[in-house]
From TrEMBL:
NCBIfam families registered for this protein in UniProt: oxido_YhdH
Recorded superkingdom: Bacteria
PANTHER family: ACRYLYL-COA REDUCTASE ACUI-RELATED, SHORT-CHAIN DEHYDROGENASE/REDUCTASE
Protein name per the record: Alcohol dehydrogenase
Organism: Methylobacterium oxalidis
Chain ranges of the Enoyl reductase (ER) domain: 14-325
Pfam families: ADH_N, ADH_zinc_N
Molecular-function GO terms, alphabetical: acryloyl-CoA reductase (NADPH) activity
CDD domains, alphabetized: MDR_yhdh (cd08288)
Coiled-coil boundaries: none
Length: 328
């Protein structure tokens, strides 16, 4: 019997529980590629999975962790062979399929992407699901035809994982970036990533009007709820907002006014089941366009046994930027 160390979410009569324990390799789920996980990360959804605050785990026992970088140990997939460096985000890993906070993972080869050239496994996970989602947001804005000469771009939840990468990517692409944050102390951090202006998130927290003064041409929103409703009401005519998150809430108390009176577009982003060609394009662009110095500045590293201690912290919006989890 071969075992490895893993965080495991179990469900009993008292509800969900989390423990760091030995896991039997024979209990890994079906898949044609087995990976020695070297790095994972902390995402908002991992906080939800570990605390049980939202029912994202839909199979028990579950190893949480929605993304990893690692080295292929064995493969029945034509594209991968032992020794290949790979990256995985999404596909229900850490929710319905045993996940990344473990020394081993077995997944479908079709879910993997090769480690992008120019990135180390640790850098790929410093980007992780959050950074890859920020790139999907930028790609959606590009596809819409949004351009920096049309006006500023707002990023909400700017000090968080998606937000930090979004600020760096938009600034690199030439946008005048307005970073919205609830944390006074993070202004210098956000300016260092490329933000031109800092906006107190309280300005986006009031009851949304159908329309308000036009302030930006584009946006990347990781927060949802009242914040997104205010962002839409303040978006310039024919502007676009890419929405990917719900850190404030799942609701959206808006009206059709921004859409029918200003032609504003709301672009939905789902990173979990993105098809392979778009996934690979996003990773290739990240490897080319994300400033690795800025990536390092937004990254903190923890060891696998310590990640559970951060679950409540990320849900409370107290973690900054990205957190890499060293597994190997
Ligand atoms: N659609 C997808 O495929 C996809 C992929 C990845 C992530 N997401 C979602 O994107 C969101 C962000 O993920 P993340 O990993 O970047 O999380 P994160 O690091 O915790 O960042 C979220 C940020 O939102 C802000 N925030 C938190 N609570 C808030 C509240 N009550 N009101 C207003 N702002 C609040 C905070 O930024 P400030 O302190 O700077 O204000 C916080 O740092 C999550 O909802 C996550 O589930 C979705």
């Amino acid at each position: 019997m071969s075992t490895f160390k893993a965080w495991v979410v179990d469900k009993g009569e008292g509800g969900q529980s989390l423990s760091f324990r030995d896991f039997d390799e024979a209990d890994l789920m079906d898949g044609d590629v087995t990976v020695r996980v070297t790095h994972s990360t902390l995402n908002y959804k991992d906080g939800l999975a570990m605390t049980g605050k939202s029912p994202v785990v839909r199979r028990f026992p579950m190893i949480p962790g929605i993304d990893f970088a690692g080295v292929v140990e064995s493969s029945g997939h034509p594209e991968y062979e032992p020794g290949d460096a790979v990256v995985l985000t999404g596909w229900g890993v850490g929710e319905t399929h045993l996940g990344a906070y473990a020394e081993r993972a077995r997944v479908k080869g079709d879910w993997l992407v090769p480690l992008p050239g120019g990135l180390s496994p640790a850098q790929a996970m410093a980007i992780g699901t959050a950074g890859y989602t920020a790139m999907l947001c930028l790609m959606a804005l590009d596809h819409h035809g949004a351009r920096p000469d049309q006006g500023p771009a707002i990023v909400t939840g700017a000090s968080g994982g998606v937000g930090s990468v979004a600020v760096a990517l938009l600034a690199r692409a030439g946008w005048h970036v307005i970073a919205s944050t609830g944390r006074d102390g993070e202004a210098d951090y956000l300016r260092g990533l490329g933000a031109a202006e800092i906006l107190d998130r309280a300005e986006l927290s009031g009851p949304p009007k159908p329309l308000a003064k036009e302030r930006w041409a584009a946006g990347i929103d990781a927060v949802g709820s009242t914040t997104l409703a205010n962002v839409l009401a303040m978006t310039r005519a024919d502007g676009a907002v890419a929405a990917c998150g719900l850190a404030q809430g799942m609701d959206l108390p808006t009206s059709v006014a921004p859409f029918i009176l200003r032609g504003v577009s709301l672009l939905g982003i789902n990173s979990v089941t993105t098809p392979q060609p778009k996934r690979r394009e996003a990773w290739a662009r990240l490897a080319r366009e994300l400033d690795l110095g800025k990536l390092a500045a937004m990254t903190t590293t923890v060891r696998l046994p310590d990640v559970a201690g951060l679950a409540e912290e990320i849900l409370a919006g107290r973690t900054r930027g990205r957190t890499v989890v060293e597994v190997g």
